[in-house]
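Ops channel
N.P.: pipeline sanity check, posting one input/output pair.
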């Protein structure tokens, strides 16, 4: 048996995240299937998986940052990365609450303000679990018993009675959570009628089981009572959505009426504490299922409303909302009450990763299902799989639009194929290559022919990017200083200059020396207003046979993307 720490340190946090991700991957479908409260939208397991995947990715990034040198991250480094990753990657109500649970634990594990802690003992873990449960309950506007909040509170209470090291405390928390989970049907009538336990609570038990394994080195067997409750529902799950009386909100936080709000609105928000306090009051008046988690200037906001625009406007007044997701409960596979025929799958769809809201709108207008990627926040494979499912097609063309996402997209495609979806991955390395591929997409063609034509169009498009250097460094074009403008062609620095417009013109000239018929410019919010007009005029006057298309990319992370076909 592997040696395991008697205390919790950075390596144990890393192990916990990895084990939790694997466990949720195995349990995801089961958890999705029992997600009947309050909206039977069948995505709690997936949302929890995506949230933990983001947390695990953030922790791995901290360890990778130390490279092969001496030393390793501290417990504070790992715990804070875990909490931050979960916060920015939280999906749905259950994922948002889990993010706050992890944040609450991290605040204790990191050693408070100083962050000097190198490890945590049993007493520290007891305190962390209690703080997690309390902070999660405070984040929910109107807590309901029989949900993940109940399970978290039971875990903390059981841990407080345990004596010994982290292994003993973790095991006590896991067992207490399992017992509370088995009792959730007696606390919520909708669970009792469907014959299921709470899906969010089931996910938390899985995460705590991974904590036990990280502390002991021994995999836990699911508590028999919880497993029995889940097994008993297997035969009934297929008809559960139609049987369950629908109530407002998603997953596991707030009970409501049969006629609940029409939209789920989720966004990240950069705002001060006092502004968030006002935001909570306003959103609580607009709708229900309100959960606001985070702190230190960054928040994850989740609410169900009838007026999605008003919810977003409230965020704008409070600070800077971004990564905005709006889901209509009447669309797709989300059930809000009554029976209806299942939505027919379309034959073919395109799923694309895009770097900004402007391009997301462009791709959506062209019929693609989009996944928004923020600078420094690449989508995880689970998020791409979820987008493929959302496309609801028998055949899917996947456009990663980033060389760094090649392996992530390949993993997503492989997962989707196991679910019976035919997926073709076109290795687009930039959004402008994706635009070229999408331009020749014809759903009426044979799948293989369509993929060949899209791949050919993407491959015939050279791509470039204009960036501003953040620090002094060596590049393939020489040494750049902080603030210099860099022009990259096919991923390599080709031009260094002091002015963005002049550098972009030089970059474009280099690309057009090899020929071209069409120039695509995607202008970000960071670019000068005049750059597009200047480059359009330059192309028109200097390259008579070349056309130019200009798109607004929004907050895409780089001032300018260029494509030459």
């Amino acid at each position: 048996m592997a040696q395991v720490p008697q205390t919790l340190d950075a390596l144990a946090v890393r192990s916990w995240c990895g084990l939790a991700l694997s466990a949720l991957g195995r349990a995801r479908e089961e958890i999705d299937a029992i997600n009947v409260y309050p909206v039977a939208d069948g995505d709690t397991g997936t949302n929890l998986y995506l949230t933990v995947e983001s947390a695990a990715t953030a922790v791995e990034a901290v360890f990778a940052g130390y490279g092969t040198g001496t030393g390793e991250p501290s417990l504070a480094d790992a715990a804070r990365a875990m909490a931050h990753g979960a916060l920015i990657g939280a999906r749905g109500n259950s994922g948002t609450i889990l993010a706050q649970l992890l944040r609450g634990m991290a605040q204790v594990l990191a050693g408070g303000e100083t962050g000097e802690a190198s490890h945590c003992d049993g007493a520290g873990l007891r305190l962390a679990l209690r703080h997690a449960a309390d902070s999660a309950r405070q984040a929910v506007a109107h807590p309901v018993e029989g949900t993940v909040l109940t399970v978290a509170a039971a875990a903390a209470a059981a841990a407080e009675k345990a004596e010994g090291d982290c292994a003993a405390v973790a095991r006590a928390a896991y067992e207490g959570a399992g017992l509370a989970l088995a009792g959730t049907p007696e606390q919520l009538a909708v669970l009792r009628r469907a014959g299921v336990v709470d899906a969010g609570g089931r996910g938390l038990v899985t995460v705590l089981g991974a904590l036990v394994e990280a502390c002991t080195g021994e995999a836990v067997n699911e508590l028999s009572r919880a497993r029995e409750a889940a097994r008993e529902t297997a035969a009934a799950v297929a008809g559960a959505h139609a049987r369950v009386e629908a109530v407002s909100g998603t997953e596991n936080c707030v009970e409501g009426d049969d006629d609940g709000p029409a939209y789920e609105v989720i966004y990240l928000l950069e705002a001060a504490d006092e502004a968030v306090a006002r935001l909570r009051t306003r959103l609580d008046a607009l709708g229900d299922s309100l959960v606001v988690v985070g702190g230190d200037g960054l928040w994850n906001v989740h609410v169900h409303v009838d007026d999605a625009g008003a919810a977003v406007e409230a965020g704008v007044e409070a600070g800077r909302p971004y990564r905005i997701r709006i889901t209509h409960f009447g669309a797709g596979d989300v059930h809000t009450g009554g029976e209806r025929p299942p939505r027919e799958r379309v034959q073919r769809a395109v799923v694309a990763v895009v770097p900004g809201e402007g391009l997301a709108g462009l791709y959506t207008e062209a019929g693609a299902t989009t996944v928004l990627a923020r600078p420094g926040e690449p989508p995880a494979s689970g998020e791409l799989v979820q987008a493929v499912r959302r496309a609801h097609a028998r055949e899917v063309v996947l456009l990663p639009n980033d060389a760094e996402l090649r392996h992530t997209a390949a993993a997503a495609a492989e997962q989707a194929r196991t679910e019976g979806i035919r997926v073709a991955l076109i290795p687009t390395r930039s959004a402008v290559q994706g635009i070229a591929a999408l331009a020749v997409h014809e759903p009426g063609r044979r799948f293989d022919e369509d993929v060949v034509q899209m791949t050919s169009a993407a491959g015939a498009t050279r791509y470039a990017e204009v960036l501003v250097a953040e620090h002094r460094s060596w590049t393939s074009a020489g040494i750049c200083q902080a603030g210099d403008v860099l022009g990259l062609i096919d991923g390599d620095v080709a031009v260094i200059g002091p002015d963005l417009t002049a550098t972009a013109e030089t970059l474009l000239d280099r690309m057009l020396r090899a020929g071209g018929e069409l120039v695509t410019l995607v202008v970000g919010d960071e670019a000068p207003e005049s750059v597009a007009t200047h480059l359009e005029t330059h192309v028109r006057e200097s390259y008579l046979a070349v056309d130019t298309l200009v798109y607004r990319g929004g907050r895409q992370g780089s001032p300018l993307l260029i494509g030459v076909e």
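N.P.: looks fine end to end. The chain has a mean pLDDT of 84.
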